[in-house]
């Protein structure tokens, strides 16, 4: 989730990919003449969200992946970008999609599948599509699996420095994230609703089957405002412009890892609501991660429910080797290689409890929650929603945070309801939504 740019980005721009596709098309027409003798037709392009430190972790994995070659000479090029949706849409419109894309939005993946942009996965990969990360879809009357999780994360967490009391937390908030600013706030509201109203209500809301003006949804918003408490204009402005990663230490060298919000905004704040991925920022600090349920004014009956997210691989090209690649990426051998090559604090969480998990103390604790403690896992609600509704949710959170009044909230919820209705396949322009059965599930694997 780092904002820094991976060195893979420079060698994987859409212009380069388009040129490669043109070259390959010429190869297909002139194959008998040996036009592809240099082997470039065997390179598969993988588009993904990992840049900076995470990109470096995947770079090591990609290098090791080449050793899985079965004699075909297959090679791979990875393009990491923080503007994943925009890059993918541009490539699809240009007729030059990547062979494989790794996305965290099942709402987007659902739209692509029902628009026949995705290729169904082979049985071996489909068997690893653990719920709730990769539910099967019915497309053109046939039930198939179109994506599989490569790595997963736990979102229902609160971070604090050791020794800080949980009795009266002062919350660190950073809502800035380039084009997707606002998602740290949507994570708050989603987590609160899950623990106050439970998985069933959460699922109906996430899939567009419950009004945004429902009192339980409204209560999640007002609870968030109450938890944050009164804030000065200067504090609000700071949160709206501060990255969710915090800021680098002024004394550190250029390009240093940010200090996280606990290091950037302290001592004015003591606790942070953030996903498990943030552990690499706090790798050298005495920072503790606890389940968020005890902080959110929820019901004890829902303490065993946790919000999760994931990075899913899907096939966008007709090249059979792309399906084979996804099968390899989701397999135990590849996961073992990825874990061994990544820095300890960047070792991924996998959905199967039998797969290798992180070994650092914080990582082990989080993995234990994911695979042993949790009774129900619910996929990030905004990533379940159609992209147009997700983006509207992000913007609404920013507006509400700036002015958390009842009148402002009523206005925003009404606007979100209008977007929901327009995105619904039954009444509006939407291309489909995820089935209710695909949002929450017991831990799989």
UniProtKB/TrEMBL annotation:
Residues 1-37 form the signal peptide. InterPro entries: SBP (IPR006059). This is Extracellular solute-binding protein. Residues 424-445 are annotated as: Disordered. It comes from the Bacteria. It holds the Pfam family SBP_bac_1. Keywords: Signal. It comes from Streptomyces anatolicus.
């Amino acid at each position: 989730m780092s904002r820094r740019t991976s060195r893979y980005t420079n060698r994987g721009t859409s212009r380069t990919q388009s040129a490669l596709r043109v070259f390959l098309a010429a190869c297909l027409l002139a194959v008998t003449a040996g036009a592809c003798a240099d082997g470039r037709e065997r390179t598969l392009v993988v588009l993904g969200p990992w840049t900076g430190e995470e990109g470096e972790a995947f770079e090591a994995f990609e290098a090791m992946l080449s050793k899985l070659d079965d004699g075909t000479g297959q090679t791979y090029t990875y393009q990491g970008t923080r503007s994943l949706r925009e890059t993918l849409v541009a490539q699809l419109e240009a007729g030059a999609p990547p062979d494989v894309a790794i996305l965290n939005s099942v709402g987007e993946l659902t739209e692509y599948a029902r628009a026949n942009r995705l290729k169904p996965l082979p049985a071996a990969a489909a068997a690893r599509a653990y719920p709730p990360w990769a539910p099967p879809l019915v497309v053109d009357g046939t039930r198939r699996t179109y994506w599989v999780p490569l790595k997963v994360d736990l979102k229902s967490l609160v971070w604090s420095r050791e020794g800080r009391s949980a009795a009266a937390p002062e919350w660190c908030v950073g809502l800035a994230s380039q084009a997707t600013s606002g998602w740290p706030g949507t994570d708050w509201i989603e987590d609160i609703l899950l623990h106050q109203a439970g998985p069933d209500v959460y699922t109906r809301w996430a899939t567009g089957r419950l009004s945004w003006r429902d009192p339980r949804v409204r209560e999640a918003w007002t609870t968030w405002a109450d938890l944050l408490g009164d804030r000065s204009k200067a504090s609000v402005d700071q949160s709206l412009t501060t990255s969710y990663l915090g800021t680098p230490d002024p004394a550190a060298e250029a390009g240093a890892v940010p200090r996280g919000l606990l290091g950037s905004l302290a001592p004015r704040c003591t606790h942070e609501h953030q996903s498990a991925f943030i552990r690499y920022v706090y790798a050298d600090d005495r920072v503790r991660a606890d389940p968020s349920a005890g902080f959110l004014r929820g019901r004890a009956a829902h303490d065993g429910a946790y919000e999760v997210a994931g990075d899913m691989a899907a096939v966008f090209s007709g090249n059979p080797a792309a399906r084979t690649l996804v099968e390899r990426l989701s397999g135990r051998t590849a996961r073992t290689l990825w874990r061994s090559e990544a820095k300890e604090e960047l070792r991924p969480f996998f959905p199967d409890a039998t797969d290798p998990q992180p070994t650092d103390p914080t990582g082990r604790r989080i993995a234990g929650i994911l695979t042993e403690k949790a009774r129900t896992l619910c996929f990030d609600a905004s990533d379940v929603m159609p992209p147009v509704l997700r983006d509207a949710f992000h913007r609404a959170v920013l507006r509400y945070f700036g002015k958390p009044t009842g009148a402002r909230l009523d206005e925003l919820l009404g606007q979100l309801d209008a977007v929901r209705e327009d995105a619904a396949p039954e009444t509006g322009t939407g291309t489909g939504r995820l089935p209710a059965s695909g949002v929450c599930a017991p831990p799989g694997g």
